[in-house]
Specification:
The complex is a heterodimer. By secondary structure, chain A is α/β, with parallel strands linked by helices. Chain A has 13 helices and 16 strands. In chain A, strands 2, 3, 4, 5, 6, 7, 8 and 14 form an eight-stranded mixed beta sheet that branches. Chain B has a single domain (6-271), classed as Thiamin diphosphate (ThDP)-binding fold, Pyr/PP domains (Rossmann fold), CATH 3.40.50.970. In chain B, helix 7 links the parallel strand 5 and strand 6. Classes of the chains: A alpha/beta, B alpha/beta. Chain A binds chain B through residues 25, 27, 46-47, 49, 51, 53, 55-57, 59-61, 63-73, 75, 89-90, 93, 219-231, 238-239, and chain B through 13, 42-44, 46, 48, 58-59, 62-69, 72, 75-84, 86-87, 104-105, 108, 261, 264-265, 268-269, 272.
Chain lengths: 377, 272
Amino acid sequence: MTNKPKLLQGDEAVVEGAIAAGARFFAGYPITPASEIAEGLAEKLPAHGGKFIQMEDELASMACVIGASLSGLKSITATSGPGFSLKQENLGLGMMIEAPCVVVNVQRVGPSTGLPTSPSQGDVMQAKWGTHGDHPVIALAPSSVKETFELTVKAFNFAERFRTPVILLLDEIVGHMREKVVLPEEDEIEIWDRKKPTKSPEEFNPYEETEDHIPPMPDYGTGYRYHTTGLFHDKTGFPRGTNEDAKKLMDRLMAKIEENMDIISLYEDDIREDDEVIVLAYGSTMRSAINAVSKARENGIKAGWIKLQTLWPFPEEYVKEISKNAKSIIVPELNRGQLIKEVKEHVFGNADVYGINKYDGTLIKPDEILNKIKEVK
Amino acid sequence: MKYDIDKYLRQDKLPHIWCPGCGHGTIMGNLARAIDKAELDPDKTVVVSGIGCSGRATGYMNFDTLHTTHGRAIAFATGIKLGNPELNVIVIMGDGDGAAIGGNHLIHGARRNIDLTVILMNNHIYGMTSGQFSPMTPTGANATTTPYGNIDQNFDLADLTKASGASFIARGTAFNTRQLIEIFEDGLLHKGFSFIEAISQCPVNYGRRNNIDTAVEMLKWQKEAAVNIKKWDKLSQEEKKDKFPTGIIYQANKREYTEMYQEIIDSVQEEA
């Protein structure tokens, strides 16, 4: 038996995806255009034995989610640009202490209060560099309602599997758009849970190096009585303040992401052997990109597309390979050019890279991309 | 009474880093004594702290311990407690940590009446950053950022948490160990948001700038300024000047947050 089709918006798909992935805790603060996620989880979590709490501010929401994760619950918060900025310090703590959790940012136009109800992809770089210091980041960006469900489940799986906060970057279009979707059955969904320690409390070191660089994580209250701190720490979890410990920890935090690029890096493409113009996009912009490429092909232009679902870590090798056979790469974005900088850096001059940028709250139309394809073919 | 507190402290992490004469070690020791007296299960007890001198307490206490960001300890503790209501969750904060940067979480934790035991070690100064004024630095006192004297006024943290909805409010001092152990124990056993202000002393960064530069003098001040709540109301306004009440200042039976949430879960699941 398959599920019946549903008419869902992206924010609602986050709710469905979170519940399906096993999320049992939400802490958040109201903000447009992400409030529907809070409202949906406030209604649905109790039936699953889960908890919802509306906190006094965005900083507290991020802190609360990390606390619940340490108690053993899969946890999520949702916000938009202004709130995402406020979450950054505690998000950094989550990365440092390796607390699995999912942070949704339904992007609106910034800076500041900006255009609260209009779409943007302006937080791509904030997702990567928002908190201070070097740090590991996984950020996923869906382009449809169905993908939002799928990537929400993946975000939880990555958070649990790699023991780190995962950022889910929607934009206002994807968050509020309604589409018909058939959600998968429970047994069709792959679920990952965090690794639990197999050693006794006496033999256990909470941040010990392991082959996959991911330390097992006991729930609070299970007798391990371990210490966790945002200070650089050694394998025991306690700070010693040595430069050697600091380097070792940072290298491990980065290695657990970098060595798993093949699992984390999600993208789709439609590129024929002789395609010369490639449109590389993500999020709602992807929808116009696909439409523009098919129109270009109808006009006999050799064009293809790449849909990035994982923005961070950036798929450097893949983009480098693609660029070898391309003449031009077009990167449409709802910002003044953020991800395009990564593209330019990793094509190594193999192809010319062009941006199409909108940052006035309007979206990029297929014809605008088509015109660019014609211009640079 | 004899207490067995060694097992509650990580012996390999001692001696602690607090300065000679600091009250924080005394207060932490008395918390360990109260935990012993209250017979909390150490495997089901979590201690959460923020940033500053008080924040270091979690490194020494032998439980699940979390050293968080500046001011946010109550918000982390709220997630831990709501995530697993079986846990005893203790929060340790300083006066800059809890009353300045974390003031919003203090009042909202109290408003929810979530079952946390919040201990605010008040040494009237930012000690770790070497002596800037906090919301609890007395008006007129000297700090590194008040070169012409402090014009800021203080919170009465007991009044603040009472107005915010806390159901257990107490104050004690590093000087009066017996009283502090008792109110810690009562706070730990109270179901709901327990707020305890523990007056500490910082001879290094407060005392020496304010002509009270030894721990002994500062403890004498605590002894003289502290008035048991039972005697407090009998004092005239004149007599209350420069003094503060100690003991259990307020206690009430109120619905606790995680229990109320569990009732929602139970009713939703029953309907389904």
